[in-house]
């Protein structure tokens, strides 16, 4: 392609909300034959809402949420926002206040903890609980499996090392996600899902979006996401990563083409080669089409 063609291609992209950071990014995109999609905020809307709560101890729901929110107010994670939003309903009814816990700690890809009224409150995934030597009863395991089968994300809450409740959170698929995966398949581009969320939820979302279990990687920490990109590259594939979070940025950098969701975090947008300003997954196809048109000889 001539420099003019590249300029035209980049310009067309920009006019459609596909920001391509330079000619190299546009060129690499036409070779992409494998795309890793992050789940939360990329395949899903990224606007999670609390759908149910299961308490295992005799405790009033508003008091439970008061404790949980005291920890989550310090977190910018979408799940934390969903929980704080949910807690506000009790606050508006003047049932509780939301204060902030002390000694807040955030464990990336796991959850959060803090001391609230002299109790240690931990909020996060089952693996975070297990890593902290907190035991999970068969009853809790059963409840987790049930919610995960419905494609819901589960968050466990413990007080002083004992699980006291499960919060179930739903984050619906983006309406275009399934079609985009199917069109990519017809374009000979393989789609893989990579997520920090648990296997059960990941597989249920995979089923909704049309990604096979074999092409799902769950419970992946940020550097593991990047390692998966590198492994695929070593197997000879040209890999794009599509993501929105801080936890996606190592993978966005490692990929041949990193694509950030426009509504995502600044860190992801900076790490990416292409920014999808509309946050619509159809623009993954727009980018590939544009690059193929600019760089393929047969036209
Ligand atoms: P993803 O890759 O899907 O964007 P993350 O790596 O950010 O997910 O998080 C993985 C898991 O860690 C979540 O599904 C949740 O169980 C837990 N988690 C992370 N941060 C929090 C938080 N602030 N509150 C509760 N749970 C959290
Ligand atoms: Mg995400």
UniProtKB/TrEMBL annotation:
The chain holds residues 640 to 938 of 1010 of the full protein. It comes from Zostera marina (Eelgrass). It is found in: Membrane. This is P-type Cu(+) transporter. Coiled coil: none annotated. Belongs to the cation transport ATPase (P-type) (TC 3.A.3) family. Type IB subfamily.
């Amino acid at each position: 392609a001539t420099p003019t063609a590249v300029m035209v291609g980049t310009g067309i992209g920009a006019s459609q909300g596909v920001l391509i950071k330079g000619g190299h990014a546009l060129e690499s995109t036409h070779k992409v034959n494998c795309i890793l999609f992050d789940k939360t905020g990329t395949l899903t809307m990224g606007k999670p809402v609390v759908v149910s709560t299961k308490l295992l101890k005799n405790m009033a729901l508003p008091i439970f949420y008061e404790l949980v929110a005291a920890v989550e107010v310090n977190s910018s994670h979408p799940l934390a926002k969903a929980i704080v939003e949910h807690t506000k309903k009790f606050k508006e009814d003047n049932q509780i206040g939301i204060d902030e816990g002390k000694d807040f700690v955030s464990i990336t890809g796991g959850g959060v903890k803090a001391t609230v009224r002299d109790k240690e409150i931990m909020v996060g995934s089952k693996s975070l609980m297990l890593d902290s030597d907190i035991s999970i009863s068969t009853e809790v395991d059963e409840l987790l499996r049930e919610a995960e089968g419905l494609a819901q994300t589960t968050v466990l809450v413990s007080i002083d090392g004992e699980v006291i409740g499960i919060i179930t959170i739903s984050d619906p698929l983006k309406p275009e996600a399934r079609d985009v995966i199917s069109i990519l398949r017809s374009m000979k581009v393989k789609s893989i899902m990579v997520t920090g969320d648990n296997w059960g939820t990941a597989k249920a979302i995979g089923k909704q979006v049309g990604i096979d279990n074999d092409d799902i990687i769950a419970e992946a920490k940020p550097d593991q996401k990047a390692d998966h990109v590198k492994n695929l590259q070593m197997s000879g594939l040209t890999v794009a990563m599509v993501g929105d979070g801080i936890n996606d940025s190592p993978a966005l950098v490692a990929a041949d083409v990193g694509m950030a969701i426009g509504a995502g975090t600044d860190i992801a947008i900076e790490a990416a080669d292409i920014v999808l300003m509309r946050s619509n997954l159809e623009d993954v196809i727009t980018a590939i089409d544009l690059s193929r048109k600019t760089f393929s000889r047969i036209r």
